[in-house]
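Below is a concrete protein record.
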Amino acid sequence: MRSLAELKDQLATPTEALIAEAAALKGDLIVLGAAGKIGPNIVRLLARAGEVAGIHRRVFAVSRFRDREKAAELEAAGAILCEVDLTKDGALEALPDAANVLYLIGARFGTTGKEAEMWFVNTFLPGRVVERFRSSRIVALSTGNVYPLTPVEGPWPTEETPPDPVGEYAMSCLGRERVMTHCAARTGTSLGLIRLNYSVEMRYGPIVDMARAVRAGEPIDLAMGHLNLVWQGYSNEVILRCFRRVGSPPFVINVTGPELVSVRETTVRIATLMRKRPVFRGISTPTALLSDAGRCHSLFGLPAVGLDALISKTVHWMEDGLPLFNKPSGFQSRKGAF
């Protein structure tokens, strides 16, 4: 993978299973928070699946569009742009109706000191979305942060594990799930909740964070010594295929890769490929933010791009000087502060 165009093409290549389910999914789609890290990739993936399946559906991309490049990407993918600030009164009511709603909005980074705003975006706004789109199928992105730190040796949290979030960000994300579930029960809305742990590609994620530190000779903190992550092409497909599985009570699913990723071992492998010497700080602790995605893998199969390929592709990407998002994932945080 040697160019941004090649990366985007791979992220937008649907499997036969997605093509079949895209053909069976009825109605238009509205993407709330479409200009984030995964929004344009999901829109391209759905557009490609629909094209192959011979299905035409309108896709409305909703965002404030502070990044005009993202707006251009979405338009090029065939989306209809809706430039709006959903925190403003009347904004939701002005949006078009759609049979399918993908909720990607969330406040995380830079929220320390702005906790009240974070709770509004992560908890209050989602309830209003369910009320507005009560007759739609809604898939909402959540996070594995709703689970507690658990022993590395397992068992890791499944969808049946009681949430026990660490820190206000994770608490507000659990609040999003609770409020959406309550509102969906009142309105009879079909809902899906995606508890995602570190969706990565060559421009973003924990592997990028480790590689940048190795390249700069900066220490890697080992306090959060293990994690789960998954190729974004896989997680985007799972998100779209969940529209066929929403329900009331909500369909809840953990989405991540099958590997237990050691921060130390991964950093050493990155450093070897870069011909650098890694620098570490602290010691690995016996607990980490992890989740068991067995249900996901049983329903949708395993990711086509595994950990080994993600490491090598990311290192080659960085050595070629290709673009990065410059947004650290914050995977080292054990107190849930971002």
Remarks:
- The CA atoms of residues 216 and 276 lie 10 Å apart.
- The mean pLDDT is 93.
- The domain at 4-197+230-257+289-303 is CATH 3.40.50.720 (Rossmann fold).
- Residues 167-187 form the longest helix (21 residues).
